[in-house]
């Protein structure tokens, strides 16, 4: 014999079961210290978190570069986006912009001391990226 149960009763039963399941799990407290109001990690990631920013810092870590050289180095970036990123990095004290007294004027960009301090972080990210790439290839993923 088949008993029909109204759909509304099944929905209520489903909701009750889900609530019961989730309430049975104890909520764990974080073992990490609460970050300060101006979290240093957030501050750093706000600087290097842009799509092209790590690439620009990477290429400037080798020494001063002119705009056209950077545009060629960072494959796929538009002139407008490179200009926007360089202005932002200059305003944040990461990049130094120097206008050379030539005709026509030439502009060179280089990392400031603060910008140089980002180099080990970028290198660490690159190293992990290489390992992730190898791991994915080993797992048969593209």
Residues in helix, %: 55-70%
Q: Rg from C-alpha positions?
A: 26 Å
Mean of pLDDT: 84
Question: What coarse outline follows from CA principal-axis ratios?
Answer: elongated
Q: List low-pLDDT spans.
A: none
Distance between the terminal alpha carbons, to the nearest Å? 53 Å
Strand content: 5-15%
Number of helices: 7
Kindly describe this structure.
The protein is mainly alpha-helical and 142 residues long. Helix content is 56%, strand content 10%. It has seven helices and three strands. The chain has helices at residues 7-24, 40-48, 53-60, 67-73, 79-91, 113-117, 119-138; strands at 65-66, 95-100, 106-111. The relative contact order is 0.10. The model has no long low-confidence stretch (mean pLDDT 84).
Which descriptors would you attach to this protein?
three-stranded antiparallel sheet; Arc Repressor Mutant, subunit A; 142 residues; 56% helix; 3 strands; elongated
